[in-house]
Amino acid sequence: MLTIWESFWLNEFGAVESHARSDLHFARFDCEITKIRFRGLAKVPILLLGDDSPQMRQAVSPFIAGTPSASLGIILCLTAGAHEFVLTASSLPAARFLVLSPDDVESLVRHALPVERLRHFLLVQIPHHRLIPYSISEPTEGAMFVGREVELQMLMYEDQDFALCGPGGVGKTSLLRQKQWLLRRQRDPRAKSIVEVDLLTCPLNLDHAARAIAWEVSPSKRASDMTVKGLGEFLKRISRSDPRFEDGPIDLIIDEADEILSLDRRTHEGEHVYPLMRQLRFARLHGAIRLTISGRAETARLLNDPNNPFALGREGDQGHGVQSRFKLLEIGPLNEIQARELLFRPLNDLGYPVDANQQVLKQKLGACGGIPIQVQSLGLDLANEAARHRLFNVAS
């Protein structure tokens, strides 16, 4: 039974990630519904309920409790008894679960466009505000991510250290998250070696930064006592002892690095500056890490500084400045086609009357300048306004 449903979901809606128990009573599996751009569909737990039995009833409460609040859950009832139990006796939280009756399930399977049918069920049962996928607070990944194909290929497949540079809101963090999402979806073993460290809220102190990095790599007493001087050896030891990194080095991503890089550049350790970067360079030389650093102007400044430990030296007469072991990726605004896709496709999925408002939407989109966070803000405003005035078309 479960194999059939996994196959159906994989073919019609997206990627099935895992499954648990499968018998006549119930089956549970997880899925990424990538063909509908609604919030909460990045990883959807699905419960398939069979015969009306004590085992079936006992499966419902743990499923509800185990569904993350940020995720939607889907319950497919194959019998009338299961459907009645879920609706009347399971204390189902409002607005977080889609429940399909046996007739609904049959119509989903038999429909010529199952994705549209599922979209219809979601729009009918789940409040529209709960489904709006635009966000100016969280990085974008999965089906909401658009563009950056060349940069993604480089990040995923080149054996190279990278420095991502670009203004705020242009999508640097989203690009890094999309790399991780794609590797997980492809079941690539390299996904388990990625360690992301966000230094945005880190105190302006190099030892604190070293502790933040060490803790994300391997939380322990030693990590909590870390100083800059011990970071390189720590990374070297963990890369050789932790099973997560047996297939390759720690894929270390340091995001929002500007303030720490600025401090590192101004900190002297004997005759040298950049003590934190020197430790990361030590770890890189010993094969312990692959490094990606993301930030704004300070990241580019690092690459142009001949004193940074990743610099190769000056080109002098050729006027090429400093050569660096980092590959520079400058992230700019989305082009017009990409910006339209980011705005229009989720609006279409939500049932927004895009065709009737093409000219107005184009004008508003033009004012965003291709900056993803501004496009998302526009989409959020439009979707909320449409939800307030019930403008969405929910027809399947």
Number of helices: 17
Class by helix and strand content?
alpha/beta
Q: How confident overall, as mean pLDDT?
A: 89
CATH architecture of the largest domain: 3-Layer(aba) Sandwich
Give, in spatial order, the strands making up the sheet with the most strands. 1-2-3-4-5
Q: How many β-strand stretches?
A: 14
Tell me the major beta sheet.
5 strands, mixed
Helix content: 40-55%
Q: Which strand-content bin applies to the residues?
A: 15-25%
The CATH class designation of the largest domain is Alpha Beta
The gyration radius over C-alpha positions equals 25 Å
CATH topology of the largest domain: Rossmann fold
The CATH fourth-level homologous superfamily of the largest domain: P-loop containing nucleotide triphosphate hydrolases
Ordered list of secondary-structure elements with their pairings:
Elements: H1 2-12, E1 14-22, E2 26-33, E3 44-49, H2 54-66, E4 73-77, H3 80-89, E5 97-100, H4 102-110, H5 114-125, H6 128-131, H7 149-157, E6 161-165, H8 172-185, E7 194-198, H9 206-217, H10 221-224, H11 228-241, E8 250-255, H12 258-266, E9 268-269, E10 272-273, H13 275-285, E11 289-295, H14 297-303, E12 311-314, E13 322-324, E14 326-330, H15 336-350, H16 358-366, H17 372-388
Parallel strand pairs: 3-4, 4-5, 6-11, 6-14, 7-8, 8-11
Antiparallel strand pairs: 1-2, 2-3, 9-10, 12-13
Helix pairs in contact: 4-5, 7-8, 9-11, 11-13, 12-14, 15-17
